[in-house]
Amino acid sequence: MTHPKVAIVTPAFNEAAVLPELFQRLTAVFNANPGVEWSAVLIDDGSRDATAQIVDELARTYPEVRVVHHGANQGYGAALRSGFAAASRELVFYTDGDAQYDPAEMALLWNALRDDVDLVNGYKISRSDPMHRIVIGRVYHHTVKRLFGLKIRDVDCDFRLLRRSIFDWVSLERSSGVICLEMMKKIHDAGFSIAEVPVHHYHRIYGKSQFFNFRRLFKTVIDVAALWVALVLRREHMRRATATMTAGVLPPHRRDRA
Length: 258
Known about the structure:
seven-stranded mixed beta sheet; 41% helix
């Protein structure tokens, strides 16, 4: 590992059954490399189980841990935005609190983070979910790739390593699960370099997805449509970026590689 400072960001909603073990596995990856300086931001997004108490206990046990509590559930996007805002290290690694990815495979992301790469995006080798989730996920993936002009293999693989400086240029606004689509579209359009590596995806051991019900699916369709209007039709984010560059401010990757 050639980049020694990294922040782990983990959003959680009702993940008390898996969060302690996931945290231990995450920190073991870094502790196996003494030269790496790590910190963690754990976000309790208004959980109704013991998640709040668990993250507080982890913070009391580990000085490297910072906790963000949402008094009420604000959505996956809001939890991620809180985590990114609280992460101060030069690199940010994030994954969900449901333990469907193997933290040990973070080494694959590290190996792909060269000097000319800003974000390493994991993509699922195969999806370990019930068949209806696999079908819906594939339809969603191929639809948004076409609608938003994205060429990445996996829009929604929440196993990513990225440079913190990206967020000096890219501003995230969504509070729902479409924040992943928003993030990848804005990062892509800003010209940041993206590498991709295959990672495994595992069955959920405890609990169930908060996403796959008809009400949330309908809301996702509405959110994606609104995002398409903002980012593809109106290109609002690019107008702001152009205005900033006109003022003589270059994004980090262009400054560093000019």
